[in-house]
């Protein structure tokens, strides 16, 4: 198959340049309603991003081996041509939607993805705040490999999706033209996704397109100004704790669970799930 470029690697200079431009824009055009940048928060986001590059390099080895084995098992083959690449990008975006949605509703998956939502600021550096346990996503793309998409082509499509999402992590861009807002994931749509208000929680999971959210009932437009962060924010800028805090919380909940069923549910239910306590004080009527 043709050699496909490493989109993320080629985009790093643009990431740095655009982040600096956004920082400078806050100096000359401050907005009291926007969070802007904070030195410790930005440093944490950059540290998480650099760490993810290191850990992803390790995760890629077993994932590539698994994809390659599955690719060899299927008789199907999708050639990399000018007209098949857009179709592969569409299929990858569809799988990304379900991968992203799954990482919000299954707690053990959320433990990885929560890293990206842990900042109370929303700027281009937030896009770089990536988890160090990215191996939780690969299974969602198995259907593409079994359909005959070469693992390298899948990696290319995933990189395009990731690079696209960089620019939507900003408060500096308001709503765009209606046709764009209807079809594509935009800063307005993604601000909703990063908000912690009840009406905005677990909405707008799209990567490049917002159409799948519209199709599957998870779309919410931006109305009230978003409050960014988690429903229970963390108070650390230590990258190691940012990367692992939800895993530690899960371990505490599992250790304190009374039944094996509750232990399993602490892993598979949503992030806010807790068992219903039926204990009653002595003397209380049943």
TrEMBL record:
Recorded GO MF terms: oxidoreductase activity
Residue ranges of domain Fatty acid hydroxylase in the record: 86-218
UniProt keyword list: Lipid metabolism, Membrane, Oxidoreductase, Transmembrane, Transmembrane helix
Catalytic class of the enzyme = oxidoreductase
State what protein this is by name: Sterol desaturase family protein
Q: Which residues form a coiled coil?
A: none
* Organism listed in the record: Kitasatospora cinereorecta
Instruction: Give the membrane topology, semicolon-separated if more than one.
Output: Multi-pass membrane protein
